[in-house]
Amino acid sequence: TAERLGYIPDPMARNFSLRRHLSIGFLLPQIIHYSLRNPYTLQVIQGIGSVCQKYGYTLTLIPPLNESITDAVRCAAVDGLITMGMQVGMDVVGVMKTRKLPFVTIDGTPSEDMPSVNIPDELAAYQMMRLVLEKGHRCIVIVSLSEDAFDSDEFEASVPKRRKRGYERALKEFDLSLYDLEGSVTQMVSECTLEDGKHTGHLISKLKNRPTCVIAMSDIVAIGCILYFNEHSLRVPDDISVVGFDNITESQLITPALTTVDQPAQEKGYLASEALFRMINGEALGSTHMEIPFSIVERQSLKEVPTKHEY
After folding, report:
1. What is the CATH number of the domain that holds 27?
2. Is 1 among the domain residues?
3. Residue 70, Cβ neighbours under 10 Å: how many?
4. Does 3 map to a domain?
5. What range defines the domain where residue 246 resides?
6. Domain total for the chain?
7. CB atoms near residue 272 (< 10 Å)
8. How would you write the pLDDT of the chain (311 residues) with one tens digit per residue?
9. Which of 90, 157, 158, 265 supports an S-S bond with 43, CB 3.0-4.6 Å?
10. Would residue 100 count as lying in a domain?
């Protein structure tokens, strides 16, 4: 009879009776304008979305509210949260615990107190830097990830800091350092968008001592650099090599194809979501910290160059 009369049940009333919102939230570290211009984030969302569909839940994207991630969490009408880059000790973690909101973080602090999904970022960065150095490169620019809502100088376990430790470990093996102000390694920071990557490429091209290799912590930034170099008569890799981090689909489509770290973003989203739904349903997690493997993918954007003693 209800169907015949065209009755549509009120989802709010149904959710109230279940004491659930039937939605999980994905807490974005930056405003939507920036977050969704990074293909890596979109791949994470694809993984989350596939699990939401499996359990009959919707996915709510939650950007910072009034530039505050804490305010956003206070107002979120969801049954649980997936975050990116969250670290133990942050105020927002206390808010989630006060609200008794289950949460899982991707690329966050590996901790018994906070379920997380990561790759071994420090090791991945170490191996990439070793590869670059073994190819003879000594004049290098590192393009780090920008500071976001989850990052702080107080916390040493952020993804950029873990990767920098890996770079530094490899550099030390070649008697180089990230922190030698008069050395041959320059550090820059970029937002994870194509436009910001192209702007970074412009800045690099204007350096007095132009590097032989750019190491970007994000594929989309590396691709932006390559596009800028291609448009301004800098041949990659003949004039300058570029490597990235993520192995997004576009890294295979750019010319030349990008040497990068393959980290399975979609799998991260999938595993984090499966863990979150187990928590929502009161099930125990097998492990609070899930570490998944990475690989170095060598393509055409990295070239071997002669070291000084080979000239």
Report:
1. 3.40.50.2300
2. no
3. 17
4. no
5. 121-262+296-310
6. 2
7. 28
8. 545 544 444 444 444 445 679 999 999 878 888 888 999 999 999 999 999 999 999 999 998 877 788 888 998 999 999 999 887 778 888 898 899 999 999 998 877 778 999 999 999 999 999 999 999 999 999 999 976 545 555 556 789 999 999 999 999 999 999 887 667 899 999 999 999 999 999 999 999 989 999 999 999 999 999 999 999 999 999 999 999 999 999 999 999 999 999 999 999 999 999 999 999 999 988 888 999 999 999 999 999 998 764 54
9. 265
10. yes
Distance from chain centroid for Cα 234: 28
Residue 4 in any domain: the answer is no
Residue appearing with tokens 């359990």:
55
CA–CA separation, 168 and 165 (whole Å): 5
The pTM assigned to this predicted structure is 0.89
Instruction: Report the alpha-carbon distance of residue 96 to residue 105 in Å, rounded.
Output: 12
